[in-house]
Structure prediction request, 335 residues.
Amino acid sequence: MGIDLPLIWALIVVFSIMMYVVMDGFDLGIGILYPFFPEREQRDVMMNTVAPVWDGNETWLVLGGAGLMAAFPLAYAVILSAFYLPLCFMLMALIFRGVAFEFRFKAREHERHVWDKAFIGGSLAATFFQGVTLGAYLRGLPLVDQAYAGGPLDWISPFALFTGLGLIATYALLGSTWLIMKTDGELRARAIALTRKLVWLLLAAIVAVSVWTPLADPAVAQRWFSLPNLFWFAPVPLLVAACMYFLLRALRGEPHAAPFILTLALVFLGYSGLGISLWPNIIPPGVSIWAASAPPQSQGFTLVGALLIIPFILTYTAWSYYVFRGKVKAGEGYH
Prediction:
């Protein structure tokens, strides 16, 4: 029995994107929450909680994109052709946000508000266009002769726009629970109060997307409610409800890491539901990972490099979080 290289590469790409969503999600969430914390000192602390790690978090986005190009060139060509506009908007937003990280601390007092706005706008726009791309991707991509056959604005739809707003709520919750874990005092108390509201907002978004998705796409409905997929999918809503319950319960006392961990669990459950909806297709509605894969020689060659580099990425990521562990207080920071 030979090695299923497309399956291995699909797992690598899925893992990379999941790591990006988890790790860049909370620092994008910090920017989304900036308007709720107008005091300069609190904003300094918020930015310092993610300043040492934010650029490393985006390594996973690069790895996922490079893996898609190397292992599934057809999917890479079709997806980028379909979504070049929202993806360009996302990248421009990430540039504004990244520049704001560095220039905000060096700006004069009367100029700092400009970089605060760049940080807020970049975080919101990057998150929104990621969500819009996801929503449009779920709806499926038209192909003719293995090439994208849609228009440049076909990614715009009510479902895709709503998915963008839902991802903003998701990242905001990741950001607020990260602040609970990394800060104390008034900032932490305000983050706890915000988290209580964001939990219900995210729950409403999850319910809406869960109902809307099968109604909008009969193929997804068939995949959800047919055997054996139903056995895989049935526990997901129950686990989401359990995570929500324990998250709200954790917020009653003096929470530390539990809200952030439970929010990560919610993100993972949403990601697993996405996988159940699409598997084994990489170009919905009907192109599988095997149909879109590169030649085995190419996948095998690039797999060697991936298996060498991924442990290094995991190691320096874990080390950076270990070095910058603990609470961040006012006046502290690596700048």
About this structure: The chain has 14 helices and four strands. The longest helix spans residues 185-216. The CA atoms of residues 235 and 269 lie 10 Å apart.
